[in-house]
């Protein structure tokens, strides 16, 4: 009887906490195309925290569909909720209205977009900007070195069985050109071993060795430059028009980098749909990296930009009126991080190669 009496006292002293859980892919699992009701990256972490604090608090959970993060901050500020489970980025304006938990995980600002250049465009640019120049230089040098080789070693053609004398110069040009392409077998094997011949062969092979390395370096540099055409980064963001829902902190970060952001009073999914329907209106949609991975569409080549536009800490928003609640939640988050529970949950949902965000 005494035990029952104590249980009633324990229950009566529990604080009732109003929890809003935002229905998005960072919170719930969208792997089947629809949000799960009982699993997801942030929701699984919240469940661990909630379980640890169930002896002290009674959590009244409500799932909402809200893409304006500033509006959710206002809901907490006005007392409509005590905590919101959503991937909040901390800003100065938000910090004046609510408190934030310690960092749960990291994410980065990115853009989901259609590449402006398809494979044919890239191949065409590679040919004109990368391959054509070196090819012309190679054939020109092949003719020059082949002529020099013929002058220094005129009887060299007799080493090549079945080659008519009138084709000797052509043979030398082909041999020198092949050496410049990295195939110097004929150059070394068919020499007459005269002093002039050996010296000429050594000179051509030395030049060909360094020339091939130089061309490879220049080609690699040009290829990387062309790949940047299908990337949105800190260097070219100033020339980009980016769509974003209102109240999206990521868009503000992109604006600070110089991007031209067009705000739309709609959900993130609807903003992405508007962009898909008319890609000419912008260069992409501002989005959190974790959110973006669940919305990538390889079937229509809608991809997530991998360039770094800023790493951000992800936290929950908590009312300023319950300092004890914030302290208790932070304590449990630290405990989950100490035993690697948070990291393991995070890695189970993150795409390969992005576990560094956990």
Structural class, from helix and strand content?
alpha/beta
Order of helices and strands: HEHEHEHEEHHHHEHEHEHEEHH
Number of strands: 10
Q: Summarize model confidence as the mean pLDDT.
A: 80
Q: How much β-strand is present in the residues? A: 15-25%
Verbal overview:
- This protein has 358 residues and is α/β, with parallel strands linked by helices.
- Helix content is 48%, strand content 16%.
- It contains 13 helices and ten strands.
- Helix 9 links the parallel strand 6 and strand 7 (260-264).
- The radius of gyration is 32 Å and the shape is elongated.
TL;DR?
With 358 residues, this protein is an alpha/beta fold.
Blueprint (SSEs and pairs):
Elements lengths: L1 H12 L1 E8 L18 H13 L3 E8 L4 H9 L5 E7 L2 H4 L3 E2 L4 E9 L5 H34 L15 H13 L4 H5 L5 H33 L13 E5 L3 H8 L3 E5 L3 H10 L6 E5 H5 L9 E2 L6 E8 L4 H16 L2 H9 L9
Parallel strand pairs: 1-2, 1-3, 6-7, 6-8
Antiparallel strand pairs: 3-10, 4-10, 5-8, 5-9, 5-10
Helix pairs in contact: 2-12, 2-13, 5-6, 5-8
Features:
358 residues, alpha/beta, 13 helices, elongated, disordered N terminus
